[in-house]
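INFO batch 0412 | record 1 of 1 | parsing
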Amino acid sequence: MMRTIGFASSPGILNILGVIPFLGQFVALIVGIWGFIAMVIAVRQALDYTSTWRAVGVCAIGFVVYIIIAVVLAGIIGTEHMTPGAS
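INFO prediction complete | emitting tokens
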């Protein structure tokens, strides 16, 4: 499972193009969609699902859990510590 998820995460390297003005958000959107589709395919193949919708559900649940953890951590750490130059 880790191998397939690792390969599915590889489009994320293109997020380095996010530093380009006016293009960064578009690139992040495209890479996010591409990564989600790759993750669905990886989950479907690794878990031998016959239904793509089942794999979509698994990935969607994982995404919701990821967002909840990110929000909780941002609340604990505080966003002022995440900005460059903040003390």
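INFO post-check: Residues 52-77 form the longest helix (26 residues).
INFO record closed
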